[in-house]
Amino acid sequence: MGKFDWRYVKLFVLVLVGSVNGGIEGVIKVNYKFSGSERNLRALKAHDEMRHLRILAGIDLPIGGIGRPDSVGLYYAKIGIGTPPNNYYVQVDTGSDIMWVNCITCQECPRRGYHGLELTLYNPRDSLTGKLIVCGNSFCKDIDRGSGSGCSGNTSCTYSQVYGDGSYSRGYFVEDVVQYDQVSGDLQTKSSNGSVIFGCGASQSGDLSSSDEALDGVLGFGKSNSSMLSQLASSGRVTEKFAHCLDSVNGGGIFAIGDVVQPKVNMTPLVPNQPHYNVNMMAVEVGYQFLNLSVDVLMNGENNGVIIDSGTTLAYLPEVIYGPLVKKIFSWQPDLKLRTIHDEYTCFEYSGSVDDGFPQVTFHFENSLSLRVRPHEYLFPYEDLFCIGWQNSGTQSRDKWNLTLFGDLVLSNKLVLYDLENQAIGWTEYNCSSSIELKDEITGSVRLVGAHSLSSGSSLTAQMALTIFFLLVVLLHNYLFNW
């Protein structure tokens, strides 16, 4: 060949680096936090207790995990923050509003988290676009309204987020650029970003600081104006509509922000003046027989209707609904020997097909919207038993909730649409391994958004790509020199 020319290697390097960067920059990746963990019923309930009190043109948010009741339904995303961006792993939470990540001022925050993830402390001074939010900022005034904290002037605007298990995150608000995947074509995305105000966590407690479960923070998809969704919508970057479809068969599913036009979904109005996604339930049907429940019981509970929360794993009913429902279900198998596991789960041995031996349950809502739950969805395996996923919220140890809340037990394998612009929510049974059609609000074009199923190893994609890159450089070097 003659004299070795390093220009070829330089060109090769640029091509490979471009390939690697194109695959990892600006991509929001969601993993299932408890993937591969043994089933732990106590952890399942503890997670739900925490969830109950917390409750972008189109954006594609890849998700991972299994939304089944025999696993803990907690999802996390990898997002980019800052200029230049750093990656942060944050829990995706439809039950809380603000987004926060642990800050450089946090002395007790773990540096490694779930599955050995290397966690990153955010430093606003390291970002060209990062800045502090002071009390005089309109965002801070809205957050502070009614709290009486006395925040004023140019002092730092602080936050305190307390969760149902007693854990908390406390710190101050900052503003910076957050990166996400914007839908650019059928099953295609491009990197985009928007400026978002979020919390910079200075201290935390409970599971938030446990090295076994810790992540960098929380990404809230709640209803208030402080959420990332609402902020991006107010700047005209996205519409206040999003959808998820959790795949309990293959894992992962679909999470998209924008106007879903296919499939068509029947909607029911949200109950006004509620902090969560509440809807009015009109009737409960078990095996084609309606339970004798008054509308007042169904609609006017302590929390005004049913809370729809995709982050909760099980389904919780007040005693007045739970008792008749479970009694009717077990009347189909009167000879079962029931046993209680961990003082709270009703379980039994059963060798046949649960779909053949037990009734389906259908909940009816306003606007003729119904939600059907098959036996294999509300009965989940535990060791050599089956356990019932319905839980009596009136007998829970924490605060006697007595609420009605639907989690992944009933929401899996359904496309669920949240429309904050029209204050409505809806769902339909759907193959969550397929794709949906999202309308671009600017051009009017319709784009396909497909399903994702990310594994816990997906965070190693960049490292693996770089390893392959260096191996190929070595091979190319040897090949050219020995030619």
Automatic annotation (TrEMBL):
The active site is at 93, 309. It comes from the Eukaryota. The chain crosses the membrane at residues 460-481. One of its GO terms (molecular function) is aspartic-type endopeptidase activity. Residues 75-428 form the Peptidase A1 domain. InterPro entries: Aspartic_peptidase_A1, Pepsin-like_plant, PEPTIDASE_A1, Peptidase_aspartic_dom_sf, TAXi_C, TAXi_N. CDD domains: pepsin_A_like_plant. The keyword Transmembrane applies. Keywords: Aspartyl protease, Glycoprotein, Hydrolase, Membrane, Protease, Transmembrane, Transmembrane helix. One of its GO terms (biological process) is proteolysis. PANTHER family: ASPARTIC PROTEINASE-LIKE PROTEIN 2, ASPARTYL PROTEASES. Belongs to the peptidase A1 family. This is Aspartic proteinase-like protein 2. It comes from Nicotiana attenuata (Coyote tobacco). The lineage of its organism: Eukaryota, Viridiplantae, Streptophyta, Embryophyta, Tracheophyta.
